[in-house]
Structure to design on (1011 residues):
């Protein structure tokens, strides 16, 4: 008897295709992770061969001392920070897009970064603190305040938030905060010096113990986010439909905002503001995994870690003399064209 | 009998016969219409009889709104051309066309915070210039348009505060204030309850009797039959039949255009065709499809 | 209900009377040539003009060397002593004029843009033109070490190139507001990163100079900045008024506006050219003064109570805003702040109120 395509078989085969795609995607992501970690350990002002890297890591006594120093003291911390922060940003991005039902939301565009920066600059100029490790808590507070303002103003009303309005509210609040920052920074030379380097988002010169303060915060945020996965699926159908399925949209949104603030605020406090990674990665994740948030969230973590580290490596490769291009600049230059291409693809009526 | 037409000189009987026997004032020739990669109609010819109340009917997606928009110059044809008074529409200056052709689009959006009087006044734009921004004729046109659509009491209200039916009448007033001899209406009865639908169509009928040519897209076939003097039925981007409703509307046409099996009877009020859908099958004849799960 | 609405209006027996203009409107002029003026807008305009005069007077009087009003007037008439002459004519007058012109230019540019994008937040500073001007200026300051005239030129070129790029990228099947905003935000982010890069690579002193420029400051106001700006504003203003009239019609939607005789694409192109020209000229004169373009037109719109770009009220509002902010910026802390900082804070507060109110009303 010939196989008849009943609705059941069609659904089953597409499910199988999707599962296969997810598995392949996960494999590719982890593969990419390995490649990028290796590159990050090997490439830099002094390019090391992979063999040397392995020696430096596992057989330090046999390797050249200089290489060991570079790998252990500089590149390993840098790589770890890059992975952790990248994962946090990717997760935050996926979370923001899921909860606002807005494919254009990016935590960096939503004023969280500017809030953290404003708090940092205030604290630096008032108390003269210059070590990033010391102003982490304030950065978190600033990020939280800005996030709240943007979410409130950008359309957390019962009416579905217009995507453009949310993005614009974020861009506008960012501009306000930036002008405040500029005012403070112009009045105070030391804060200007400290700020202008921190503001770019860079993995250079960040000690590993920055993760001691920011790490736990990101972990809490990540746990909340992953637990919210199923509720987000329900809420993505709309508040009423979500409630009918037993979810609590208001509570889910609140927890998501908290998670995003923790993740993003800590990430920004650690390495400065990074734009666009949180925007693009969820799209790629959704393209591979489908819209199920229980998959998209973890997948975004991995992808974003890969992307961030890859941008960092690219910044080292494109270095002019001794000066690398900071990762925050590379992601903006890579991400903006993708964002623009995406904006061009969208049908006008949809937005 | 001759009648002065606005926007053009007086027509004598001879000229009126001549234009009626040729394409009419508004027509389309070999129109290929579409959006980006989707083609909706191909090589379509259409003639709007002068002084008629023409209604375009058809199923969703058959191309009736697309055709109307092309006639209104809101959509540029990918092939072929629309003609107004013998000249290609795209070659005429926009304001000149605006004084002859008026459009009431589907789902129009009013700017935030505009009053009814203000909105209706905007319909006078084709008659105004940068340095001659208002005239007595504008005053009169706006007042008469608002009177005809019964929105005078709403003159100072904000348009976004009005109900759907009131808003539709305001948009109609704007189109009226434009004082064109040809009016194109894209689904003017959407969002209106039955009483208001009849109100709007009665007004259209009055306008038609006053000498205007009206072209409307209606989705309600029965109302279309009742009010139209000329019906154009479309399916899949082509004209399937056209003529007076009594002449062309029969069960076969409804089946062809809408895929609905029906009976046609004469409307007891107007004598025009009335569509009565036939029952597909008696309910309850087959076993139920979706059972309610037993309560646990 | 009259059946035939096509009858010409009956000639009134008392001879032709003046057209009424509709509710809330005045017709100024005769029946051959006239202007239709919105009554409330006219009143608001007059009040704003008064406010502007008062602000101007205050700015001429205050400063490190206070000069009384009668002395100011005497100096303007040519009877001041050399000290007063210098202060009034070389310091305060150019600064005041610059503030007024920048405020007017940015406000009009913002109002036109907001109408073009059909979004009250679609403003040149959010959409990346100012970031582009900044990039141009920064390149001149930090890479070519140019003079201040060259910095202005760099700002203009940067702004125009950015505008052209955004226009080309957003122009897909017509210029749609949403796409313009999104492409603009993307560009802004990229250009801001570029600016950050330039600032981190520069030496501290140069970076500080650049940062000052970036904030929008009137501290170096001189006549050779005022005059080019006057020319640009005067040249573009009539086009702004013309474009505003058509933009008001475009707010009805492209279909309806088209059938009413409005040339959509042409109007949009002219609007963009005018708005970008005004914004670029203003930015070239004193750096990007943030938020005037965003907030001033919205304030004006709420004051006059009609939708659409109200060019003259917006221009006056912008002028008052910048002139007043400059007075505040000079006096509020021990060191004179750049005016951009004050306009940013004022704009931000206003913005929060605007959005909060819209949220309460439940409108998008």
């Amino acid at each position: 008897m010939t196989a008849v395509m009943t609705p059941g078989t069609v659904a089953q085969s597409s499910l199988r295709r999707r599962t296969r795609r997810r598995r392949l995607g996960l494999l590719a992501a982890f593969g990419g992770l390995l490649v990028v970690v290796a590159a990050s350990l090997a490439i830099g002002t002094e390019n090391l061969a992979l063999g040397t890297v392995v020696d430096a890591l596992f057989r330090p006594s046999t390797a050249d001392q200089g290489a060991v120093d570079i790998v252990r003291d500089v590149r390993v911390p840098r790589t770890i920070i890059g992975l952790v922060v990248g994962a946090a940003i990717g997760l935050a991005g996926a979370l923001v897009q899921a909860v606002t039902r807005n494919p254009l939301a990016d935590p960096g565009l939503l004023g969280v970064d500017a809030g953290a920066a404003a708090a940092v600059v205030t604290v630096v100029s008032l108390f003269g603190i210059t070590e990033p490790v010391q102003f982490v808590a304030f950065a978190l507070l600033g990020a939280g305040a800005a996030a709240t303002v943007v979410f409130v103003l950008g359309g957390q009303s019962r009416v579905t938030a217009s995507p453009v309005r949310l993005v614009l509210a974020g861009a506008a609040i960012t501009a306000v905060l930036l002008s405040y920052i500029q005012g403070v920074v112009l009045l105070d030379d030391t804060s200007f010096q400290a700020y202008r380097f921190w503001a770019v988002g860079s993995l250079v010169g960040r000690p590993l113990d920055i993760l001691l303060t920011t790490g736990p915060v990101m972990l809490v945020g990540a746990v909340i986010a992953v637990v919210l996965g199923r509720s987000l699926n329900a809420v993505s159908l709309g508040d009423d439909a979500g409630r009918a399925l037993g979810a609590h949209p208001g509570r889910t949104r609140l927890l998501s905002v908290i998670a995003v603030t923790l993740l993003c605020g800590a990430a920004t406090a650690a390495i400065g503001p990074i734009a666009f990674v949180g925007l693009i990665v969820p799209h790629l994740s959704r393209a591979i995994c489908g819209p199920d948030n229980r998959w998209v969230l973890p997948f975004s973590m991995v992808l974003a870690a890969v992307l961030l580290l890859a941008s960092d490596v690219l910044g080292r490769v494109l270095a002019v003399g001794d000066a690398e291009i900071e990762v925050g600049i590379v992601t903006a230059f890579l991400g903006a064209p993708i964002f623009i291409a995406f904006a061009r693809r969208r049908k006008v009526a949809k937005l | 009998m001759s009648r002065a037409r606005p926007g053009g000189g007086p027509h004598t009987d001879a000229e009126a016969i001549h234009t009626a026997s040729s394409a009419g004032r508004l027509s389309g020739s070999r129109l290929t219409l579409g959006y980006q990669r989707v083609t909706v109609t191909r090589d379509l010819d259409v003639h709007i009889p002068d002084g008629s109340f023409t209604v375009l009917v058809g199923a969703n997606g058959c191309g009736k709104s697309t055709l109307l928009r092309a006639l209104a110059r809101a959509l540029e044809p990918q092939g072929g051309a629309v003609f107004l008074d013998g000249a290609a529409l795209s070659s005429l200056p926009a304001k000149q066309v605006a004084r002859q052709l008026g459009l009431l689009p589907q789902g129009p959006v009013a700017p935030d915070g505009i009053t009814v009087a203000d909105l209706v006044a905007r319909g006078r734009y084709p008659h105004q210039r940068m340095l001659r921004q208002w005239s007595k004729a504008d005053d009169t046109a706006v007042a008469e348009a608002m009177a005809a659509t019964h929105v005078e009491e709403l003159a100072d209200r904000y348009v976004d505060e009005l109900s759907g039916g009131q808003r539709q009448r305001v948009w109609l007033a704007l189109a009226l204030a434009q004082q064109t001899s040809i009016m194109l209406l894209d689904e003017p009865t959407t969002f209106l309850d039955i009483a208001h639908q009849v109100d709007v169509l009665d007004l259209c009928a009055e306008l038609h009797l006053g000498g205007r040519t009206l072209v409307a897209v209606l989705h309600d076939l029965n109302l279309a039959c009742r009010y139209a003097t000329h019906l154009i039925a479309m399916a899949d981007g082509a004209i399937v039949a056209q003529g007076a409703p009594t002449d062309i509307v029969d069960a076969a046409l409804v089946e062809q255009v809408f895929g609905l099996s029906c009976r046609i009877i004469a409307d007891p009020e107007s004598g025009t065709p009335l569509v009565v859908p036939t029952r597909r099958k008696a309910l309850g004849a087959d076993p139920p499809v979706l059972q309610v799960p037993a309560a646990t | 209900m009259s059946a035939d609405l096509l009858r010409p209006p009956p000639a009134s027996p008392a001879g032709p009377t003046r057209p009424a203009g509709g509710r809330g409107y005045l017709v100024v002029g005769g029946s051959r040539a006239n202007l239709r003026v919105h009554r409330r807008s006219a009143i608001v305009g007059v009040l704003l003009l008064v406010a502007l005069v008062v602000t101007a007077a205050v700015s001429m009087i205050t400063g490190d060397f206070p000069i009384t009003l009668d002395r100011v007037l005497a100096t303007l008439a040519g009877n001041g002593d050399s000290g007063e002459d210098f202060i009034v004519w070389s310091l305060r007058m150019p600064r005041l004029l610059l503030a007024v012109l920048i405020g007017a230019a940015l406000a009009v540019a913002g109002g036109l843009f907001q109408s073009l994008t059909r979004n009250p937040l679609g403003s040149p500073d959010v959409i990346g033109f100012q970031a582009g001007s900044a990039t141009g200026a920064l390149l001149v300051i930090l890479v070519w070490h140019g003079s201040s005239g060259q910095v202005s030129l760099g700002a203009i070129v940067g702004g125009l190139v950015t505008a052209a790029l955004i226009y080309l990228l957003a122009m897909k099947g017509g210029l749609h507001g949403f796409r313009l905003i999104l492409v603009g935000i993307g560009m802004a982010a990229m250009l801001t990163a570029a600016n950050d890069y330039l600032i981190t690579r520069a030496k501290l002193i140069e970076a500080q100079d650049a940062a000052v420029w970036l904030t929008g400051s009137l501290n170096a106001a001189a006549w050779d900045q005022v005059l080019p700006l006057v020319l640009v504003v005067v040249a573009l203003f009539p086009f702004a008024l013309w474009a505003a009239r058509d933009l008001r019609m475009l707010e009805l939607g492209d279909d309806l506006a088209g059938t009413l005789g409005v040339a959509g694409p042409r109007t949009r192109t002219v609007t963009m050219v005018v708005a970008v020209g005004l914004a670029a000229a203003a930015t070239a004169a004193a750096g990007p003064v943030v938020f005037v373009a965003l907030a001033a037109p919205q304030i004006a719109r709420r004051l006059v109570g009609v939708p659409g770009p109200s060019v003259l009220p917006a221009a006056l509002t912008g002028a008052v805003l910048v002139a007043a902010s400059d007075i505040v910026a000079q006096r509020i802390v021990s060191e004179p702040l750049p005016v951009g900082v004050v306009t940013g804070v004022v704009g931000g507060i206003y913005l929060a109120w605007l959005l909060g109110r819209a949220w309460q009303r439940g409108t998008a």
Summary: Residues 1-22 of chain B have pLDDT under 50 and may be disordered. Residues 187 and 218 of chain B are 5 Å apart (CA to CA). Chain B has ten helices and twelve strands.
